Amino acid sequence: MLHSEVLRQLGFALQGIIPRTIDEIFNIIHREESKKESKIQHEIQVSYVEVYLSKVKDLLNPLNGKGNLRIRESFEKGIYVEGVTQKLVSSTTEVHRAISIGESNKIIGEGRNFASSILALKVKQTDKETRVQRTSTVSFSDLAGLPRKYSKLSKKMDSTLRRRQFETLSALGQVLKALTQRIKHVPYRDLKLTRLLSDSIGGNAKTCILVTASPAFLDMEKTLRSMRWGRRARLVTNNPKVDSSAATFEDAKRRAPPHAQAT
């Protein structure tokens, strides 16, 4: 085997979940578009946000919205971040370049341990003949945990950050509790992070949750807490469905009152 081929395979083996998923998405698209009978046109956009102390920051344009974007909701878009940068990409290289820009704009210092981030790839499929569109979004959410105290932080700052992060984790716990116990009111709106994750947790999505653990004895309490959180999250049932312009029209038509349907 050639040396370059060995390095190529070794590089792939060392890749994480996000690079592998991005590669697979583009491989599927290229295979589909290379078919002679293919009638589908694809468009991919990437966005990257950070949620820190109840503020939503656009990592691809940190000055956007003065560093604090608003979360909106509409029938057409669902839950979305108003004005967030959605960069049009056509290759894995362009996606990785966008991720690098986002990583460089994340909060620095110990506060980074308390920030969560959401990387989203929006894939729009358009039938060239019927013009029917289908939209899918692949989101990668990195949720902050509750780290131990750090000597570099002042006691006041450390206490404030830990309290806010505890509130975040508690809000996530309340959402999971409401979903698993079939409570009618799910408190997604209590926190910006839970509102952004509403599709992933009990909504219109297929979700995979990875819970990280440490083998260190000092981290035993945190590991057990993480495992309990993951066990509760497994009980949540999502309701994924096709999101297309045609399906949206038919759903709206069925929900409309009789006199509206007649017109």
TrEMBL record:
The keyword rRNA-binding does not apply. GO terms for molecular function: ATP binding; microtubule binding; microtubule motor activity. Keywords: Coiled coil, Motor protein. The keyword Membrane does not apply. Residues 1-236 form the Kinesin motor domain. It comes from the Eukaryota. Residues 240-263 are annotated as: Disordered. PROSITE patterns: KINESIN_MOTOR_2. SMART domains: KISc. One of its GO terms (biological process) is microtubule-based movement. InterPro entries: Kinesin-like_fam, Kinesin_motor_dom, Kinesin_motor_dom_sf, P-loop_NTPase. Belongs to the TRAFAC class myosin-kinesin ATPase superfamily. Kinesin family. PANTHER family: CENTROMERE PROTEIN E (PTHR47968), CENTROMERE-ASSOCIATED PROTEIN E (PTHR47968:SF75). This is Kinesin motor domain-containing protein. It comes from Lotharella oceanica. The lineage of its organism: Eukaryota, Sar, Rhizaria, Cercozoa, Chlorarachniophyceae.
